[in-house]
Amino acid sequence: MKESLNINQLENEAIYIFREVAAQFEKPVLLFSGGKDSITLVRLAQKAFFPAKIPFPLMHIDTGHNFPETIEFRDRLVRELGVELIVRNVQDSIDQGKVKEETGRYSSRNMLQTTTLLDAIEEFKFDACIGGARRDEEKARAKERIFSVRDDFGQWDEKNQRPELFDMLNGQIDLGQNVRVFPISNWTELDVWTYIEKENLEIPSIYFAHKREIFMRDGLIWSHSDYVFQDEDEEVEERMVRFRTVGDMSCTAAVDSHATTISEVVAEIRESSISERGARIDDKRSEAAMEKRKQQGYF
Amino acid sequence: MEVLKIATAGSVDDGKSTLIGRLLYDTKSLTEDKLEAIERSSKQKGYDYLDFSLATDGLVAEREQGITIDVAHIYFSTATRSYIIADTPGHIEYTRNMVTGASTSQAAIILIDARHGVIEQTYRHFFINNLLRIKSVIVAVNKMDLVDFSEEKYNSIKADFEKLVAKSDYEDQNITYVPVSALKGDNVVEKSATMTWYKGQTLLEYLEHLDTKDIYNKGKMRFPVQYVIRPKTSEFHDFRSYAGKVYGGDISIGDEVVVLPSETKTKIKEIYFSDKKYTSASRRSSISVVLEDDVNLSRGDMIVKVNEMPKVEKSFTATISWMDSKQLVAGSKYILQHGINKVLAKVNAINNKIETDFSGVETDVSNLNMNDIATVSFQLNKPIFFDAFKEHRTNGAFILIDPQSNNTVGVGFIE
User: Which residues of chain A are in CATH 3.40.50.620 domains?
Assistant: First the structure.
C-alpha cells in the first residue's frame, strides 16, 4: 500500500457512474449478455462498491440462439460473484404471441429482444438499466447520453435529450420512465480489450481463434448452426475464426483469426481494418438501422 | 492510456465535419467499412470528392438536412494518446450544445472560414470557450485553398482574432493559430506543401504536444461524498467508507480534514481504490476513504482539508446558460444540482443578460430564453459548499433541473 494511485481516466469515470446509479435509483439492473463489454461492466461494478457486493442484480435477455459457450460462461461468473441473475427468454415472448419469429435468409431474433426487455423492465419495475454500449461502436450511439431517459414505451427521443454537463448526471424521472446507463460510453473497442488484458478477466472462448464450421455470405463469415438460415448452395467449410462481438448466432459474423490469447487479440485489433460492428449483420440492413432500432427501445 | 477531449466550434459551412473527417482519415482511424460507407454515400449524392462529413453526422435528420444538430462524440487515437472530439454545432440557436460539449473538454478548436474571416459567430464561439475556462484554444483558419493559401489573408484574420482575445479576462488561456485546408489535407496531420511560409506545428502535432497535466485547471481539494459503502458482512462487519471522486487537488493518508456541513475535524485513515489501499490519490480518481473518527456522513456532504474551506452559503450570484425552450422567469423554483448534491433554488433576480459577442450586457430583463446567457442571483433552501468557478472548474458549477419536467434546463458558473 506504499504507493500513490495512478489513475486510468476511463476506469475512474465508469466507477463514478456506477456509484451515481446506486445512489440515484431505487431498482437498477445490469444488463448482462456474457459479452466482453458486459464482463468489463461487472468488473467495474465490483471495483465501485468494494468491499460490498454489487448492489443490483444482473439480467440476461436470452434469444435462445446464443453461443452455448457464452451461456456456460455466464452461469459460472454469476456463481462466483454471488449476485442474482435474472433470465428472460425471447422464446417466451414468441410463445405469448407478443412477437413473431422472423423468417427467411436474414432472419434473426436480435430485434425481438426489445419486447422481452421492455416486459422485464415493467415486471421488475427497474428504473435504471446499465448497459455496455459504447459511443465508438456506431454513429447513432455517438450521440447517446450516459444517462439516457426512456419513456413508458422504452423509446429514445434522440432530438430531445437532456444535456450532460461536466460530470453531473441528472437521474430524475417520472414513474414509469427508466434510464439507460452507459458507464463505458467513452471507451473504444481497444480500450475494452486492453482493460480485459490488464485486469486478466476471463471471457468466453468464442472470442479466441478456434476451428468452426462456417459458410460465406455477402463477404462475411457466418456460423453454421440450426439457428441460422442457410441456402443449399452455401457450402459449409471449417476455418480458424474468432468473434469480435457476441450477439446471437444469427446476427454475429466471425473474422479470420489465429489469436488464441488476449494479447494476440489486442495486437490483431490494433492492426485491424474492419470496425467492430462491420461484422454485425444487423447493421448492414441500412445506414439508419441502429437509429431505428434504438427509437423502438433496443439497447 | 491518456485521453484528451476536444470541443469543436464553427459556423455552418466552415467545414468542421470535413476537418474531423480529415483528422480521422490521415491518422488512419477510418476503417475500411466506414470508408466504404462514405464512398458509397458520396457517390450516391454525386460528389466527386470524399464527403468526410458523413463520418460524423450521425442522425437521420442531420443526414437529410446536411447539418449537425447535436453533440456527437468521435474517437481516434495515435501512439501518444486517445482523442475524443465533441462535435458541437455552430448555429446561433445551438449555444446550449456548445456549452455542453465544452464542459467536458480540455481543449477547443475554433474554426474560421478563411474567405469570411472573424465573424460574429467567431466571437460567440470564443466567448463560450472563455466562459467554460477552456485553457487551450486552437484557432484553425480553414479553406486556405480557397484564398490561394495567402499568408496575408491568414495574418489579417489572426490580427482580428487577437483583438478579440484582448477583450478576454482569462489570462492563462493559451491560443494557437494554424492555417489549414481540411479538404486538401494541409496542416491538419501532414505539413502543407504549399504554405511553406507557415513554420508552426500542424493541428495534430499541436494536440500531440499538449501537456495534459497542465490543461486541467487546479484548485483546492474537494471530496464530495457520493455513496456510503457499508458491506455488513462478517468479514467487514463495522466497515464504513465514503466513496467519491477527488476534485482539484490530491488527498493523502494522514491529511487533516474538515467534514461539511458539520465542520467536524478528523483525519484520512485509509484510501481505497477497488480492493487495494493507497497512500495518496490525485484529482479525478474515484476512490473511497475511511476516516479516523466515527463521523457519520451522507451523500452530498463534503470532505475538505483544514485551512482550505470553501464558501458555505445559501445565496450567490452565477452566470447561467439557459438550455430549455420553457423560459426562465424571475421568482421561479428549480432543483439545483451542485456536483452530486441537490438543493432547492429560487431565482431571486435576473441581474442582466450578457451578449455573447462581447458587446456588453442588457439590464432590465425579466425572463430568459433558450441559449441566453445571464447573471442571476439565487436563494437556496440550505447552504452548499462551493468555490468561484474561476478558481475551481468543478466545484463552481451546477445544473438546474425543472421539477416538473425533470429536464436539465440550465448550467451555472458561480461568481
Answer: 9-191+288-295
- How far is Cα B108 from Cα B125, in angstroms, rounded to an integer? 10
Integer Cα distance of B43 and B22 in angstroms = 18
Q: Which domain holds residue B246?
A: 222-305
Q: How many residues does chain A have?
A: 299
Indicate yes or no: CB of A186 within 8 angstroms of CB of B84. yes
pTM of the model: 0.91
Q: Are residues B259 and B334 in the same domain?
A: no
Whether B19 and B188 have beta carbons less than 8 Å apart is answered as yes
Mean pLDDT of B301-318: 97
pLDDT category of residue B10 using cuts at 50, 70 and 90: confident
DSSP label of B181? B
Q: What is the pLDDT of residues B161-219, one digit of tens each?
A: 999 999 888 888 999 999 999 988 999 999 999 999 999 999 999 999 998 776 666 78
The sign one gets for the Cα dihedral B161, B162, B167, B170 is positive
- A183: amino acid identity, one letter: P
For chain B positions 37-76, those within 8 Å of chain A (CB to CB) are 37, 41, 56-61, 63, 69-75
- Where residue A87 falls among pLDDT bands split at 50, 70, 90? very high
**Chain B contact present for A26, CB below 8 A:** no
Q: State whether B393 and B331 are in the same domain.
A: yes
Asked if A16 and A47 count as a contact pair (C-beta separation under 8 A), the reply is no
Q: What is the pLDDT of residues B113-171, one digit of tens each?
A: 999 999 988 998 899 999 999 999 999 999 999 999 999 999 999 999 999 999 888 88
Asked whether residue B268 falls in the same domain as residue B290, the answer is: yes
CATH 3.50.50.60 for domain A9-191+288-295: no
Give CA–CA dist A54/B147, Å, rounded: 60
Last residue of a domain, one of B267, B283, B305: B305
- Which of B305, B334, B359 lies at the terminal end of a domain, its last residue? B305
B397: domain CATH number is: 2.40.30.10
- Domain count for chain B: 3
* Residue B360: band (very low, low, confident or very high) from pLDDT cuts 50, 70, 90: confident
DSSP code per residue over B113-174:
ETTT-S-HHHHHHHHHHHHTT-SEEEEEEE-GGGGTT-HHHHHHHHHHHHHHHTT---TT-E
- Please name the helix (run of DSSP H) or strand (run of DSSP E) that holds residue B256, with its range, or none: strand B256-260
> Is there a contact between B318 and B376 (Cβ–Cβ < 8 Å)?
yes
ipTM of the complex: 0.92
Of B103, B229, B280, the CB nearest to A5: B280
> If pLDDT is split at 50, 70 and 90, which confidence band does B68 have?
very low
DSSP string across B387-399: --TTT-TTTTEEE
Q: Give B232's contacts in chain A (Cβ within 8 Å).
A: 52
- Contact criterion met (CB < 8 Å) for A188 and B74: no
Confidence of residue B35 (pLDDT cuts 50, 70, 90): confident
- Cα-Cα-Cα-Cα torsion A135, A139, A142, A148, nearest 10 degrees, comes to -100
CA B20 – CA B380 distance, rounded (Å) = 43
